[in-house]
Amino acid sequence: MPDPPFLTAADRAAADREIAALQKIPCASDYFAQQSLDWVKAHPDAPHNADLLGFAMRVVRNACRDDATRDLSHQLFDTIHRRYPKSEWATRYTTWE
Hints:
The protein is mainly α. The protein is built from five helices and no strands.
């Protein structure tokens, strides 16, 4: 689709930069999953870690996916079952995919 006639070269360059920046951002489910895993690693004794990982697992299962999602889903599953085997989330999610 051609650019609209009122778009200047500077506008087009700015749009190209913005699009490039947006394309580097992971999808929301991957971002939340990675941030959750990082939080649990940095704060292993936080009281709501099982819930954080469980909600991240729910997001990963129900939101957009990309190439990294499968590995992050597996990491979430392993962490929930290894660290919080008696949690509601461990009983809810019996497979990582």
